[in-house]
Protein 1
Amino acid sequence: AQSVTQLGSHVSVSEGALVLLRCNYSSSVPPYLFWYVQYPNQGLQLLLKYTSAATLVKGINGFEAEFKKSETSFHLTKPSAHMSDAAEYFCAVSVPYSGAGSYQLTFGKGTKLSVIP
Amino acid sequence: NAGVTQTPKFQVLKTGQSMTLQCAQDMNHEYMSWYRQDPGMGLRLIHYSVGAGITDQGEVPNGYNVSRSTTEDFPLRLLSAAPSQTSVYFCASSFNRGSTDTQYFGPGTRLTVL
């Protein structure tokens, strides 16, 4: 079964420092991977997704993620953290569901990012 | 476009009460889903629909019913609320049900069952 694991339920960084949020996947087939962000009291918003077109994926708000098959990883990075990046981040994998060519997202447990001024 | 809208934003129920969480989208998306979010557990799929008149169960369907009479609306019914259903509920939609389709989420409904 395909799944994702996010390492660290809570990460704190200083403003201006590198942001690194870790996600490892488990899949016997090439996975389709997503990062979503949830700002306080809001719904989830897509940051970026890996669809096998390129291993380095650029998303919104300066975030990017690199798909590394050898490490089964899809870590999210941003060179310089901003106060507005404080949110919860979810890694997800698209998995076949209930036949008939249907896919659903399986989410990791989330990583809450705090940015210290 | 309003995107995905959910009502109400907050709700408090007593054990045994029933209610319907509303979800609507104006993007003409075929695929809609309901998730619940609990602390430290990420999002878990409750029910989903691949089009009007077609619904199916997700990972945690017990205690919930859904229907899809129109493309736009996908209500979630709690038949007899229990404290274990205290959670934040998110509705999502996507254009299709493919492997790389982006899901768009509503703002959520925060439900407390006493």
Protein 2
Amino acid sequence: SQQGEEDPQALSIQEGENATMNCSYKTSINNLQWYRQNSGRGLVHLILIRSNEREKHSGRLRVTLDTSKKSSSLLITASRAADTASYFCATPETSGSRLTFGEGTQLTVNP
Amino acid sequence: NAGVMQNPRHLVRRRGQEARLRCSPMKGHSHVYWYRQLPEEGLKFMVYLQKENIIDESGMPKERFSAEFPKEGPSILRIQQVVRGDSAAYFCASSHGSGRAAAYNEQFFGPGTRLTVL
């Protein structure tokens, strides 16, 4: 698998349900970032979790990081139709360098 | 505080023409990154620049592609003699050169330029 690979590729749920997306990576990191991209639009930075953090919350978002398994999860609680978007995890290779993105999870929240 | 600005938002070119994509970073940001996104795929790194310097261009094709970030003005991604395979969304991101943002490489993205090559 490549750095920053998301799972599942697509997820369809009903409004009000929770959505969980997973990301795996291969190399050592000092942080991992999650982004949202609405169809045909740019990326919105959601949350950054540092390598010494295990869990972080922001509103309805909860991100976990397990550096021993090189994996992260993004949980969106009480989903809304407006949450419909693609979600990407990204890891920096070295400080001040590129971000490596996964292929993304396409989330559809049905009203 | 304006975010990262890119123009044009949409660009249509015929095969063989040149495409010039512009990116103005966030105020106070001195680092610029360009990424390309093909349909249904994630973003792929192309090039990383600081003012007047190319730091890492390992993701950019050697032929036909060039990038610059002059002392004054926006960063430019230039694609010469475009081909249909260049059709994609091109995103620019910027980051601060120091402090926490630099240590964790927080990047802020523009809305992208969607290039269509006919």
